[in-house]
Specification:
The chain is mainly alpha-helical. It is built from 18 helices and four strands. Helix content is about 65%, strand content about 5%. The strands form two sheets. Strands 1-2 form a two-stranded antiparallel sheet. It has a two-stranded antiparallel sheet with strand order 3-4. The chain is elongated.
Length: about 425
């Protein structure tokens, strides 16, 4: 796992560097922002990419942290008391310490874990899996954003000249790389649950928090000796689920710990057991292979994002008049107009505009409506100047520069040689 972490770290740094360059390139290109997936105050395209880069930079920090914290198990004995080694070395504890130093040196570690049995604590596996799973979630988030933006024709992932989006619809060009990232990321983002189950009491605790599967299982085994009464299973399960739905926090707390008795708690069972052995042989290599695959895909996508500025402007123009209404009201107030009356006039015209857009497919003509209303005559000659998209993106460009040229550049510095010397893999999708 140590060696695998060392392999994926520079690959992640390269993906972040791709976004670093993209963010700076488009730091002041206004684009429509979305909250609740509804049109919101514009930002710059580079500002959005900087958010993606920061999420991945956090993953980079996590990878570096778990790698730096790895230690060697060493010679500890079956239960961690080193009793057998004390017998071998005739009670000379210093020789055991010296043996562990030699073992650490041969394995390339600086030290052993202070407390360990014949197997190191599976908390180590869980910490690594948590970091990789968090990266999987970041990958999904970025790829999902790209898929949404591709739908709006704002930007797109790279496509091969002969790539087919649909066997039936020849005109389509689906974001297949991003879809694949979401698919693999969904697996990686949840793989840490197996490591958590190995280390902790998750099998019983989760049965209290998510009682459906647990109580179906319990009812099944309860009635199986006589008959498989499916309706009784379902009824009993539904009753238990409802009891949890309306339970107070204290009732849930008591219920959880009523099930979590010492016999049910640790999957590692006191000093250790090996019921995790088989699943670790699957999950440990799989989580690193998933991470590597995602990094190859992300490198390809982030290195070749295609931007469509004309579509960005078109999308902005559909919403920008609404964004400008607050400034219009303030301009009127500065000229002595009642704010309440100005607000009401804007509200009525905005509703009429939205109605026309939704029912007739009309363009956003709010500004034209305002120009025809004598109430707004005092600011007619100022309206066009109030619609410059760059007036609405705040400090987006400054924020991008400050982050990318500051903390992010410093974080990537140690990977500079790898970034400069490694080409992006060519994918055939």
């Amino acid at each position: 796992m140590r060696d695998a972490l060392r392999l994926i770290l520079p690959k992640l740094a390269k993906v972040i560097h791709n976004l670093f360059r993209f963010a700076l390139k488009f730091k002041d290109l206004p684009t429509l922002a979305f909250t609740h997936y509804q049109a919101a105050q514009p930002i710059s395209l580079g500002r959005r990419a900087a958010q993606w880069a920061q999420d991945l930079a956090m993953d980079l920090e996590d990878f570096e942290y778990v790698l730096a914290g790895l230690k060697f198990r060493g010679a500890q004995g079956t239960t961690g008391s080193q009793a057998s080694f004390m017998e071998i070395f005739h009670g000379d504890a210093a020789k055991i310490d010296e043996l562990n130093k030699i073992l650490c040196g041969k394995a390339g570690f600086e030290a052993c874990y202070d407390i360990s049995t014949q197997t190191y604590t599976r908390k180590v596996d869980l910490r690594i899996a948590n970091a990789l799973s968090a990266f999987g979630a970041s990958a999904i988030r970025i790829a999902t954003d790209i898929r949404h933006l591709a739908h709006d024709k704002i930007l797109d992932e790279p496509h091969e000249a002969t790539q087919t989006g649909s066997s039936a619809m020849a005109f389509k060009s689906n974001p297949m790389r991003s879809e694949r990232i979401c698919s693999l990321g969904r697996k990686l983002s949840t793989i840490n649950t197996n490591f958590s189950a190995t280390f902790s009491s998750v099998s019983k605790i989760l049965s209290c928090v998510f009682p459906i599967s647990y109580y179906h299982q319990q009812m099944w085994y309860r009635y199986r000796p006589t008959s498989v009464d499916i309706s009784k299973c379902i009824a009993a399960s539904q009753a238990k689920i409802l009891s949890f739905s309306f339970a107070t926090p204290s009732q849930l707390h008591r219920s959880i710990f009523r099930h979590a008795n010492p016999r049910n708690l640790p999957q590692q069972w006191l000093e250790r057991t090996l019921d995790d052995s088989a699943i670790r042989r699957i999950d440990i290599p799989e989580m690193f292979l998933l991470t590597d695959a995602l990094l190859i895909l992300l490198d390809d996508v982030t290195n070749g994002i295609v931007v469509f500025p004309a579509m960005i402007r078109s999308q902005l123009q559909q919403e920008l008049p609404f964004m400008a209404t607050e400034n219009i009201i303030m301009k009127l107030v500065h000229k002595g107009v009642s704010r309440q009356e100005a607000h009401e006039r804007i509200r009525v015209l905005s509703r009429e505009t939205v109605e026309a857009m939704k029912t007739e497919g009309a363009k956003n003509d709010l500004i034209e409506r305002i120009k025809k209303d004598d109430f707004f005559r005092p600011i007619w000659d100022e309206l066009d100047g109030m619609l410059d998209p760059k007036l609405f993106i705040g400090r987006s460009a400054e924020i991008v520069e400050k982050y990318c040229e500051g903390p992010l550049r410093g974080q990537l510095e140690k990977y500079k040689d790898y970034i400069d010397s490694t080409a992006t893999a060519t994918l055939a999708v």
